[in-house]
Design a protein that fits this description.
This protein is mainly beta and 353 residues long. The chain is built from five helices and 22 strands. GO terms for molecular function: protein-glutamine gamma-glutamyltransferase activity.
C-alpha cells in the first residue's frame, strides 16, 4: 500500500497484526500497523508501530541463573533465536513462503549491525556448546539429545551439564516433565571436544504429549573452572505419520490440486500406518470440505502396531452459488485416537461444471 504520510520509499509491503501482545502507543489498543517493512528492515521508528515489529524479529533472548536467593546473573544472550523463519502463505498454495529477508538483513552481517546500531560481537568464550538430536524424530521413535562442548584454550575444562525434556502446549507453555539427567564433559586440550548424551525413549514421552506433538529440551551447562554458565532451550517437533488420500482411486499428495466435476460422486479412501508400539484405540476420522461433503465423523477400528488405520467415504462436489465466488475447495481428513492425535491429510479441489 502507498504511504504518503511517510514518503515513497516506505510504500509497498506493510506489516499488520490485529492481535499483538502489547497495546499500540498510537492507538491505545491491541493493534499493530500498518508498519512499513522498509522501515522495519532498516530499524527506523515510524508510524505505525515499527518499533514493535523490529523487536518481534530482532529481539535477543537472555537467560539468567539464580546464584543465591533472589540474586540472578546473566548466563547467556542468544541473538539468533528470534526472527529465524518469518513466514507467510504462498499465493495459490498452502505451502510456506519465507519472507525473512523482507524484515531483516542477514543475521550477523554489517548491514544488520548498521540498521540496529549493534556493537561488534563479543569475543568467543573458551568453551563453545551446542545441542543436537541423533535424528529428526517421528512420533514413536527413540532418539538421543547430544550436548557437545569444544575447548579453545590449553587449560583443562570440566563442563557440568543438566538436561531437561518436557512436553509443550500449542501456546508454548511447558507441560509435563519427560526426563531429567545430569552429567559432565571433560575437555583436556585446546581444540578438544566431548559430548554428553541423553537417551529419550518413546515410552518416556508418549504419555506426556499434548496437541502439538512438541517437546522442549532445556540444557544448562556450567564450566567448573570459570563459573561461566550457558543455557539453551531447543524445540523438538515430533513428525506425525502422513495420512494418504485416494480420490477416485488416484493418490493425492498433501495440498495437491485435483479437478472434480460438480454433481458427480467420487469415492475417497484415507489411511495411514500406526507408528506406535501399541494399538490405537477409540479411532475416529473427521471429514470436512465446503461444497464437497457435510461434516462427517466416522468411527474406525482399533489398529495394532504397524497396522493400517483406514476409512472410506464419498464426496459430491457442488458449484459455488455465485459466479464470482471461488470454484475451489479443500478436503480435510483428520484421525484422532486415544494414543495419537492430529494425523491429517488434505487435498485442494477445483470444482468444474
Amino acid at each position: 500500500m502507498a504511504r504518503p504520510d511517510l514518503g515513497l520509499q516506505y510504500s509497498g509491503w506493510q506489516a499488520i497484526d490485529a492481535t499483538p501482545q502489547e497495546i499500540s502507543p498510537h492507538s491505545k489498543s491491541y493493534v499493530v500497523g500498518p508498519a512499513s517493512l522498509s522501515a522495519v528492515k532498516t530499524g527506523q521508528s515510524m508510524d505505525y508501530d515499527t518499533d514493535f515489529v523490529v523487536a518481534e524479529v530482532n529481539a535477543d533472548i537472555r537467560d539468567y541463573c539464580e546464584v543465591e536467593k533472589d540474586k540472578f546473573v546473566l548466563a547467556v544472550t542468544d541473538t539468533k533465536r528470534v526472527g529465524k523463519t518469518v513466514s507467510t502463505k504462498t499465493v495459490g498454495s498452502n505451502k510456506r513462503c519465507d519472507v525473512t529477508d523482507s524484515y531483516k538483513f542477514k543475521e550477523g552481517s554489517e548491514l544488520e549491525r548498521a540498521a540496529l546500531g549493534l556493537d561488534e560481537p563479543d569475543g568467543a568464550s573458551d568453551v563453545q556448546l551446542d545441542v543436537s538430536f541423533s535424528k529428526q524424530p517421528a512420533i514413536g521413535d527413540n532418539f538421543d539429545v547430544i550436548v557437545t562442548a569444544k575447548c579453545s584454550v590449553k587449560e583443562v575444562r570440566t563442563v557440568r551439564v543438566s538436561v531437561a525434556v518436557s512436553s509443550v502446549s500449542y501456546t508454548g507453555g511447558s507441560g509435563t516433565s519427560v526426563k531429567k539427567e545430569q552429567g559432565k564433559i571433560s575437555l583436556t586440550r585446546a581444540g578438544g571436544s566431548g559430548s554428553y548424551t541423553v537417551a529419550v525413549r518413546s515410552s518416556d514421552y508418549l504419555c506426556c504429549l499434548r496437541d502439538q506433538a512438541l517437546l522442549s529440551v532445556t540444557v544448562l551447562a556450567v564450566v567448573s573452572e570459570t563459573g561461566k554458565g550457558w543455557v539453551s532451550k531447543v524445540p523438538c517437533r515430533l513428525h506425525r505419520p502422513d495420512l494418504t488420500l485416494l480420490v477416485d482411486g488416484k493418490q493425492v499428495e498433501d495440498d495437491e490440486w485435483v479437478e472434480l466435476s460438480a454433481g458427480k460422486s467420487y469415492p475417497v479412501k484415507a489411511y495411514f500406518t500406526n507408528p506406535l508400539q501399541k494399538p490405537l484405540t477409540n479411532v475416529v476420522f473427521l471429514i470436512e470440505g465446503a461444497r464437497l461433503t457435510k461434516p462427517l465423523k466416522i468411527p474406525g477400528k482399533n489398529t495394532g502396531k504397524g497396522k493400517v488405520a483406514e476409512v472410506s467415504f464419498a464426496i459430491s462436489p457442488r458449484s459455488a452459488p455465485r459466479k464470482r465466488q471461488s470454484q475451489s475447495s479443500k478436503l480435510i481428513v483428520t484421525c484422532q485416537s486415544k494414543e495419537l492425535k492430529g494425523v491429517m491429510g488434505t487435498a485442494c479441489v477445483t470444482i468444474t461444471k
